[in-house]
Amino acid sequence: MRLPRVILADDHTLVAEALHQLIAPHFDVVATVADGRALLDFTKSLKPDVVVVDIAMPLLNGLEAVRHLKREMPGVKVVFLTMNEDPEVALEAMNSGASGYVLKKSAATELLQTIQAALHGKSYVTPRIAQGIQDLFIRNPQGRSHYKALTPRQREVAQLLAEGKSMKEAADILRVTPRTIAFHKYRIMQNHGLKTNADFIQFAIKNRIVMR
User: Fold this and answer.
1) Domain topology for 147-206
2) Predicted pLDDT at 142
3) Which of 12, 26, 33, 178 is within CB 3.0–4.6 Å of 171 for a Cys-Cys bond?
């Protein structure tokens, strides 16, 4: 009987290795990646059944990577495994198309059960976070809007630049010209009243484009 195929995405080597050892007896771990762009590439080529992904990753954060994946491969199941306990982040994660949201401090059995639930078309959110999401809806049914005000390309550019990439480095990663990167940065700063690079970085952090 074929084991379900899984890709792990976490930029901390020790965490990724521990995860591999944990789930290898139950699933076929076909790849382990350390950034969101590698996750996209490996998922497209290896076609796993499930992706276990962290929220905070370089080059392309987990939220944005999953949005890309679900547009191109809607059948792949996604489970977020993260230290982030913010219910607003969890809500964005589930809205991105994920089937599960588990904390790294949770019991190992909870992760395994969440992956199995995802494979069977069910959703699971760690109870403490689920309560926070419910409270969030009660307080603010409309949710946040700043993050969604950016286009997908603007979010990609904002993360790369806020992480310290140069215009040329960002252009090489996105396979566009430095002039295109500069244009996107200018539009973001103009539309959101940002005056300095420090403002730009704070905007990216506040709107969960760069996770800290």
Assistant:
1) Arc Repressor Mutant, subunit A (1.10.10)
2) 54
3) 178
CATH superfamily of 5-139: Response regulator (3.40.50.2300)
Give pLDDT < 70 ranges for the chain: 136-148, 212
Which of 176, 95, 77 shows the shortest CA–CA distance to 137? 95
pTM over cut 0.85 = no
Separation in Å, CA 91 to CA 55, 86, 146, 151, 178: 12, 9, 15, 19, 34
Domain boundaries, the chain: 5-139, 147-206
Output the CA angle 27-33-38, nearest 5 degrees: 125
pLDDT digits (tens, 9 = 90+) for 97-111: 999 999 999 888 999
